[in-house]
């Protein structure tokens, strides 16, 4: 014989069910709302066009980001990546910058590094001169595009690009401006500064610091005599060895020094962007070298005391939760205060008259 539930029990169950349904509905609305916020925050006032650039018998897969209105031709900012396997949008990191530049009426051009996103080649096979040649070919391609003002093409580059930007200017006297973000100057001094800064940040002891410096000196000695990767692995203790490809890349580039090429930027408007919490680059040395080699009003220096090397807000980058949430819901807020605006104002200050190279 079945027993009917008590009326009170049935009522409570209905209330629980209604509560669960209401909660589920509220969560669905919240999820949809948050999803809408994410989509909206990652919608940029740009017209992006996939482009193909021919370089050295290969093709470079790129993106040409145009202002949302108008027909052009637009002045152009050519993006030069820092270290690592970077794609054309730098995993969307560039889009807030492109949007800000577009508000000053500028287009932006960027491309996948070799071997990234299905592109042929391997970026670890490149020297800084190879990278400059690649950018020069991209500029030559851009000058033939009806959307681009061929007389107003300039460069934007970060970190490792500090060794590439002046080389491009030496090859392309038509470069009209440069935005250099956290650029390095001397490969060896930059590496030492980075090592010591990270050891301090990690609370290393004096003994640990001394051991790390000895290890570094061993690596430098091997590089100077063009040692093989096998020799490097045998000579250097530790689990964090460079791969053979990375060793090859460092071997070909470790003598880089931007000071040799920076005079090519004399007379060119340069915005030097420096961060207050830069563990990678000695910003004091960078500023001193730029001021010494690029005297005059064409050099402008912008300091961001709350920024990390990548010009993200230091407080955000230091927290994985804040970094993730800000990246999802407010990607423009990732950057140090004033960083996006100052670049836009720098470009706006250059005027609008095209100068044919």
Fold topology:
Elements: H1 7-41, E1 47-55, E2 58-66, E3 74-80, H2 95-102, E4 107-111, H3 128-143, E5 148-158, H4 165-171, E6 175-181, H5 187-201, H6 206-224, H7 229-235, H8 244-253, E7 270-277, H9 283-293, E8 299-308, H10 314-317, H11 320-329, H12 339-348
Helix pairs in contact: 2-12, 3-4, 5-6
General description of the model:
- By secondary structure, the protein is an alpha/beta fold.
- It has 3 domains: 8-41; 47-185 and 267-348, Alpha/Beta hydrolase fold, catalytic domain (Rossmann fold, 3-Layer(aba) Sandwich); 188-253, no CATH class.
- Helices cover 43% and strands 18% of the residues.
- The protein contains 12 helices and 8 strands.
- The protein has helices spanning 7-41, 95-102, 128-143, 165-171, 187-201, 206-224, 229-235, 244-253, 283-293, 314-317, 320-329, 339-348, and strands at 47-55, 58-66, 74-80, 107-111, 148-158, 175-181, 270-277, 299-308.
- It has an 8-stranded mixed β-sheet, sandwiched between helices.
- The radius of gyration is 25 Å and the shape is globular.
């Amino acid at each position: 014989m079945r027993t009917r539930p008590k009326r009170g029990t049935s009522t409570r169950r209905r209330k629980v069910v209604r509560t669960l349904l209401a909660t589920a509905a509220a969560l669905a609305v919240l999820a949809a709302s948050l999803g809408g916020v994410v989509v909206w925050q990652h919608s940029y006032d740009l017209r992006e066009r996939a482009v193909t650039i021919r370089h050295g018998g290969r093709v470079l897969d790129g993106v040409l980001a145009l202002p949302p209105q108008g027909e052009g031709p637009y002045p152009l900012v050519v993006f030069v990546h820092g270290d690592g396997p970077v794609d054309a949008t730098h995993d969307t990191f560039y889009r807030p910058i492109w949007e800000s530049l577009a508000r000053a009426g500028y287009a932006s051009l960027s491309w996948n590094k070799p071997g990234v996103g299905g592109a042929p080649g391997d970026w670890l096979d490149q020297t800084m001169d190879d990278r400059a040649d690649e950018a020069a070919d991209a500029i030559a391609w851009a000058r033939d595009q009806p959307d681009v003002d061929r007389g107003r093409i300039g460069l934007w580059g970060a970190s490792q690009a500090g060794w590439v930007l002046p080389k491009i200017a030496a090859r392309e006297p038509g470069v009209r401006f440069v935005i250099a973000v956290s650029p390095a100057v001397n490969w060896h001094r930059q590496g030492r500064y980075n090592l010591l800064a990270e050891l301090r940040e990690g609370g290393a002891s004096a003994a640990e610091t001394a051991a790390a410096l000895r290890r570094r000196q061993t690596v430098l000695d091997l590089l100077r005599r063009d040692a093989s990767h096998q020799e490097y692995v045998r000579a250097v203790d530790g689990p964090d060895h460079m791969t053979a490809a990375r060793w090859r890349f460092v071997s070909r580039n470790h003598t880089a020094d931007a000071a040799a090429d920076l005079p090519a930027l004399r007379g060119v408007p340069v915005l030097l962007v420096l961060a207050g919490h830069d563990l990678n680059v000695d910003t004091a040395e960078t500023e001193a070298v730029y001021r010494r080699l690029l005297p005059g009003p064409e050099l402008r220096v912008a300091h961001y005391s709350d920024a990390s090397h990548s010009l993200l807000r230091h407080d955000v980058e230091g927290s994985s939760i804040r970094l993730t949430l800000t990246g999802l819901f407010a990607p423009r807020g990732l950057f140090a205060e004033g960083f996006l605006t100052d670049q836009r104002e720098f470009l706006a200050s250059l005027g609008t008259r095209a100068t044919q190279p």
